[in-house]
Amino acid sequence: MARVPVLPQNTELTYLAEGAANIVYRISIRPLTPEPTLLEQYGPGTPPPTDIEPEDEVEYLNEQPLFDSKLLRLRKNLPTTFPVAIAQEKWEQLVAPLFSPDQIVEQSLVDLRPGRFIASLNQKLRNNETGANSSSRPTNRLGIYLADDDYGLLVTDMTNFDSVNGEEVHEFKLKWLLQSPSAPKDAVRCRQCARSAQENVKRRANGKPYKQYLCPLDAVSDDPRGIAQAASLMGTSEGNRRRIKRWLENSTLLKRLRQLQAELDPIGVLTHDPPNEKSCVAMTLRDCTLFLRLPRNEAGDALIEARLGDLDVKSPDKAPYWKQTELELINDGFYQGRDGLPLDCALSPDQEGRFRRLNLGLGRGFGA
Q: What is the dihedral of CA 127, 130, 135, 141, to 10 degrees?
């Protein structure tokens, strides 16, 4: 096993974002300031203290470039997360070989033990939740803290580097890029659009407006209108929508992801009993994140950087949740469209009507 670098004790970690299983921190390594020492304490021939560097301090200084353009990802204390060293081993063996290095968010182990970071970060999370200021954490993430793990992961920083000059970074959970093998034969929605309809029913019950979700099948569609529809929901400006459309038309990344989803799980979550290694990787690929970094328009389309992240292999302990979710979508009629919501899916039998409705801005409210 390659030597694992140590996160310097003089590192400052700033909360950036979190998902269901991990919290991501920005890394800032503060300059080392040695304690002033009287030269009179040293005998003749002893070099000044500024010329003496402890061995571990030299090690830290040599490692600091490793943290450039990196974020720190730490796992939460949940029964469905693997210890980081095990998760990284699975990633290296089962996921990384599926893609070229420039297609994925690279990750590597970092040793947290010398700095005792976990206890300090958990205390900050608790203080933030109970303090006078509102927590920066999403409400549904409160009360869950970091696992007391020996390691974290250094991951490629895919945040916005140059927003002042017009750079944009977007991230998308495209989820299932083809229909679920367990879906009913009479389905008029793909698996992800069925899940989106389920979420919109909850929004309706809570008095919230209908939310237009991306149909992931549009992102890998052979129909130019589908590609255009996906790009319209992925970009925030007209220029970047055009660039994303061209990227979707020309890139092979998402089609490769779709191919792997199909190959690794051709039978569906209802028949994973128990889940095997391949099915767990398939579910990982159905929940990964697509990061798109778009420099300002003048830089040209060729500079769009696309990487897949959040690729830690799923635990088979999540199988009951996967099955329960699929059964709800089937039994409650979300696949078949029995909820009365618009069929904003590439599998809708009325594609002409769908695109006409979307182009007119209809179908974006309940009862449309």
A: 90
How many whole angstroms separate alpha carbon 105 and alpha carbon 86? 18
Strand pairing category for 107-111 and 168-172: unpaired
What type of residue sits at position 273? D
Q: Per-residue pLDDT for 94 more than 90?
A: yes
> Rounded to the nearest 5 degrees, what angle is found at the Cα of 256, between the Cα atoms of 254 and 257?
60
- Is residue 341 within 8 A of residue 200, CB to CB? The reply is yes
Question: 192: which residues sit within 8 A by CB, 6+ positions away?
Answer: 174, 175, 176, 213, 215, 216
Cα-based distances in Å from 121 to 32, 112, 124: 21, 12, 5
| List of domains in the chain | 1-157 (3.30.200.110), 160-368 (no CATH)
Please give the full DSSP string across 327-341, using - where no structure is assigned: HHHHHTTTTTTTT--
The predicted structure's pLDDT at residue 315 = 92
Q: Could you read off the pLDDT of 308-340 as tens digits, one per residue?
A: 999 999 999 999 999 999 999 999 999 999 999
C-alpha atoms less than 13 angstroms from C-alpha of 59 in its C-beta half-sphere: 11
Give the span between the Cα atoms of 176 and 285, in whole angstroms.
8
Expressed in angstroms, the distance from the first to the final Cα of the chain is: 58
| pTM greater than 0.90 | no
CA distance 65 to 54: 19
Nearest to residue 153, comparing CAs of 94, 88, 60, 66? 88
Phi, psi of 181 (to 5 degrees): -60, -20
CA distance 27 to 15: 9
User: Which pair of structure tokens corresponds to residue 164?
Assistant: 């002042």
